[in-house]
Amino acid sequence: MLLLLVVHAALALLAPVVVRRLGRKGFFGLALAPAAAAVWALTRTRAVLAGDGPVETVAWVPALDIELAFRLDTLSWLMVVVVGGVGALVLVYCAAYFSATASGLGRFGGVLVAFAGAMLGLVTTDDLLMLYVFWELTTVFSYLLIGHYSDRKASRRAAMQAIVLTTAGGLAMFVGLVVLGETGSYRLSELLADPPTGSAVTAAVVLVLVGAVSKSALVPLHFWLPAAMAAPTPVSAYLHAAAMVKAGIYLVARFAPGFSDLGVWTAIVSVLGTWTLVHGGYRALRQYDLKLVLAFGTVSQLGLLVLLVGLGSQATALAGLAMLGAHAMFKAALFLVVGVVDAATGTRDLRRLSGVGRALPVTAAAGALATLSMVGMWPFAGFVAKEAALEALLHEAGTLGGALVLAGVVVGSMLTVAYGLRFWWGAFASKPTADDDEPVTVTRPSLVLVAPAAVLALLGLVLALVPGTGEELLTPHAATYPGEAGHLVLWAGFTPALGLSALVLTAGAALFVARARVERLQARVAVPLEADLVYRRAMRRLDDAAADLTALTQRGSLPFYLGVILVTLVVLQSVALVGAPAPSWADVRLWDRPAQVVVGALAVAGAVLAANSRRRLKAVVLAGVSGYAIAALFMLHGAPDLALTQVLVETITLVVFVLVLRRLPAYFSVRPLAASRWVRLVIGAAAGVVVAGMALVAPTARVHTPVSADFAEEAYVFGGGRNIVNVTLVDIRAWDTMGEIAVLLVAATGVASLIFLLTRSGSRFRSADARGTGYVWAGVPDRTAALRRLGGRPAVGGRDREWLRAGSTLAPQRRSVIFEIATRMLFHSMVLAGLYLLFAGHNSPGGGFAGGLVVGVALIVRYLAGGRYELGEAAPVHPGLLLGLGLFLSAGVGLLAILAGGSLLESVIVEFAVPVLGPVKLVTSVFFDIGVFLLVIGLVLDVLRSLGAEIDRHTEDAAPDASDPDAVDRDDDGDPGGAGTPMHRTTTEAAGAVATGTGTREGGR
Amino acid sequence: MIDTAPNLTLVVVAGALAAVGVYLLLERSLTRVLLGVIFLSNAVNVVFLVAGGRAGGAPIIGSTDEDAMSDPLPQAMVLTAIVITLGMTAFLLALAYRSWQLNHHDEVQDDLEDRRVAARAAADLAAYESDDDETRTLEQEAADVHDETGAPVGAPPEPDAAPGSRRVESAEGGDVR
Fold it and tell me: Where's the MrpA C-terminal/MbhE domain (chain A) (predicted)?
């Protein structure tokens, strides 16, 4: 069975290719999948009859006890034959039905095959959760098929309606299935062999019935099915006659043996079944569109089927199963016939069709056979099934309920006869049409188009001639119901059931003959409440309610949202705190080390002053003070790694802040709203108190031994390192770290994409690129220009080489010899220090984070000393490369451990001796740390390039030279660009441009 | 097991920093919001220290006796939190800069789309264009539906404009200025 499902899936995926290559003929190939399913089931008939049909079980999600369990019993066998057989015929039909140029045929074929596969899984699975999965798959594929013509409003609406209703039902069913699975078993066969009881089970069974009701289009959720006729006709024939709507019937038939003795089950099934049966027939009588006649007819028949298989007696069940097969044959045939008529004439309006029967005799004959089976004429399959049903219901008619159901079935069958005759007459008879309509012209369809319908219609006759075989095939499932056995016979003599059949046929024919009067009567009876309209209004109300709720909650104000979240935090945590045992003063230490008080006060003071500051830079610097104080707190607590990281991060943060703040206004805007400020103060104070309360209560509430109790031993033995914090990061909790560096990667990419608007990469700003673009950071007065001019002379050769490679790209007034020399001397040492921290981090404070940050600081120094081209010279790589490589290395180490036979991200320790260095102990987690290291460098580099270099460029682009008085001054001097500056040497074009007085900054443009 | 009695100094520092952080977080200026985030994250990091128990020596085997060590687990957590705060800082700064580029200030404005939804809801207008047309019945819609068969008769119905083609051009063009 699993193999068949795979075949369906593969063909569904291949379908677009197949159809593109072969055109419509590709559908013949696609038909092989469902045909294989049907043939496979037929070859297993004997085993199924003997009660040992094939069983397959493959473990799928062991943790949830979900198994790919499949089982072919009689009911499944019947459904597989129907689903596979009709599916194959419909796909063959498609090959001739659509025009060769029809749009989206590949997708259509794929989805149809996928649907057949989902249906096959649904009816053979033996696992409740798999049942639900396949159930929803059929819903989704049905949605795609109904909405095949996605450019039509009607199709989209019908598809949406169908999926909303059936998914709602499916969700209810899911809850029911889970309750059943938890109280009984998730294995369907075990659940039904020993059905659980109790009020929870009763509720669950009702929920499962809701799913069946929505799927099988029972009143009051029936209206999606007629609307779904917006789907192409082959889909109507397959999904909405033979297969998908039968899923609900299947579900009822599957659960009835176990649960039909529940009162609520019988009540739902008999009331909704009877109501649907009569209602559908009544609505079908007043339709003019052939497809709608059939659609409402299908609704009616689905009511009958649910009634028969759900009532819970063996005789009705047998009749129901026979009806299920008969219905699949005649209703699919009839839909296919409608398709033929539609394709041949271009209309389905029975008021316009006339004389089609004479033009298409074979089609008309097939339609006649199918119609006769539907109305229950002797000797067709429909007759056999309906006779068995009437016979069985007559046995039950002793009670009031039974009598009402029987009456409903009789009335519904009369309506069936009437709309069946109306259908055939409407489609094929010669009759006067309305004057303003031209008579339709009929083109002859190909044999391929007519054959599938004819095959199905003939089967309805042939199978009826061997009712004994049918009984033998279907009895094994019917026998699981309680009650007396029923029989399928073609002729049982003159029984009361035969009398009822005769009554039904006569009255139905009379209804058809008096159709004009019936139509008038129907038009006069106003329907008080149309379910369709109720649904539409309800959806509209839901939209309105959603919009109102959105308007109420989504105010669009960030402070409001944050305020709500924070107030919620305060309230919830306060409640928790009030209930918690308060720590006594004896439990509280004032400090571990007195210095903590001093440093803590500094941290708080910095924060408070920063909050109070109106000047941006002041606020940021004060925040930095607070941050460094926190680093000291870490140190005092005994966390050198934290202190180191915090100091480095504070430094980088400070620099990055300043880089951005140079573009922002110097002062925060004035905030006159005093009231809202008080609100903020109150929320802030409350949050502070709650955080302090939590910090006070949480540690004393610890009762278990911390997991970190054994970290020391684990770190050394398994992680191979002495620095427990570092080993925790790269080994014990490596998964966490990997997630966190992924966050860093995302943040870096986000920064870059916010600043580099057009390209992600931007340029790398090598000093060679600086030619002709003017000085960097030239936007301040150059007060020493005169001095340089006096003493300057062009430097030649190696003696006066630059301290920094791109130093000459910087505006002269921005350069500092001391800074350049210091940078030159410090940079490499800092990089080495970073590398040292990286490799030593496993055993002493440091690690990838700290090492990467140190190298980041080194890059910052280069940038500050020499501008963006200097940064490009210092790190001539794309940050994206570092980020990607870092993450790849970290993840790659995990894979390495798998290769070595361990679990993901497990460390492997390799020890070997190197002649000179002595014994070397290599822990694979060092590669993980190298990944972290590279990624952190990438982050800093990306931030520098974006918030530093690129913002520099924006600034230079934005400020025209004329607005810079200094630049104008210098140009007025007539000085040829400062001959003594190194610029002269490296960028001759720039110097020339400057000499002509176009300005220093954009000289080359 | 490490002595977990809370350190009152750290508790007070955490509470004060959290209060300042929340106060700043509720501002409209992105720079202040960002400072709020930083203070709040420092506060939470200190709470982690408190939760880890008493202070001690560096958790490095060999340099500190195992019983005298501070708890390494919260430290590992806080370490990554510090670096992530750096990433967050950079991102928010980029946002602030972008806001300044577009609007010449770094204040968070109310979301116009939310305002529009609210206005439409107040006026009882549909929030989006629905495919549902209550004036058309099932029968009318069915009459318009025809498959793409080889049928020579019956002109194909006018297809509606595809849903995508009706998209309203946004007035505020974000980056495209």
Answer: 679-755
